[in-house]
Task: structure prediction
Amino acid sequence: MGHLSDINSGFKSTESTKNIPEIGIGMLGYSFMGKAHTNAFRTIPFILSPPPAIPKLVAICGRDKMKVADAADKFGYQGYYTDWRKMIEDEKIQLFDNGGPNNLHAESSIEALKAGKHVLCEKPMARTAEEGWRMLDVARKYQAKHMVAFNYRFVPAIRFLRSLIENGTFGKLYHFRASYLQDWLIPRYETPRIWRLEKEKAGSGAMGDLGSHIIDLAHFLLGNVQSVNGMTQTFIDERPLPGNGELAKVDVDDAFISAVEFENGAMGILEGSRYATGRKNYQVIEINGEKGSARFNLERLNELQVCLHEDSSAQEGFKTILMTEAEHPWMDQWWPPGHIIGWEHTFVHEISHFLNCIAYNKEVGPYGATFEDGYRACVVSDAILQSARQGKVVDCEY
Result:
């Protein structure tokens, strides 16, 4: 391991935290998700009172030695590795946080589980359902905790919505519709053929990148998807490689849409695209039931819109609930009512949940997404892609 001197995570143990367990963290990846997860690890001891555990930033791993050393220094890790295999041998690490590209999810997570590490794996858990099944099979054989980083389960509005559904507020559910739209692949941005556009590394395109999130939310809120009828499209099938400009094939989907049927009889529509001009991170879900409806927009993360028949003002349409009251999920740990939180705080909720499960041997599910949940999302993703290829309805076989 490469070592760095004078590293200080900024957290000092006090009398009130001295009996709280410490959990050593090994982080794979220093880019987007590595940064987001590390921010959560550093924030948890300061915000949660008391924190479930104290994350100790042992090591971060990446292929580029100079970049990963710089990340370790900037983020506050004690050291760094350029080989994830070496990192999971580190006895100071108890939690392996897998923020690497999709093609590294299965092999490194499986080896970490075999090495006795707890594993937090970014989504999509695997490139295919078959790969996801192998991960789940290994996870079941070992005693370590495992979770897939579906962080939108940890948005206060989404957790509150689930509680309303569980309490029967909406009665029998009829519809679920979800769109997840971004625009970073439209021609004007001249995006090169990066790994997210290569099937070997990514597994799929918008399907795994965006679709996995809304599939998981569908499962989280309504239960298993029973069958799908999908369509996909690749709008630009060649893009220049970064650096040399040589054209290379794009062999993943740019956009998808699917009608779905749930095991409980509800109907749904799932849609994802990275070609939706003007949409940056637009994730909108809506449910309709016999007693009312609810709507959530990720770009207005602190709000949940609800319309209930029993409400005397129901004829006026949806009411907006600002999810900042102390009784709303997690909000007692943050700021006074009306003071909103942000996207990055979903990772604080998610990772603190996982640390709590590790420290006190609690079950990750049903609120955290286990490897079983990650596998089920892969099954639906594969079924939609199969349906698009074959032009027919495909049953989801878990």
Notes: Residues 371-390 form the longest helix (20 residues). Residues 7 and 74 are 9 Å apart (CA to CA).
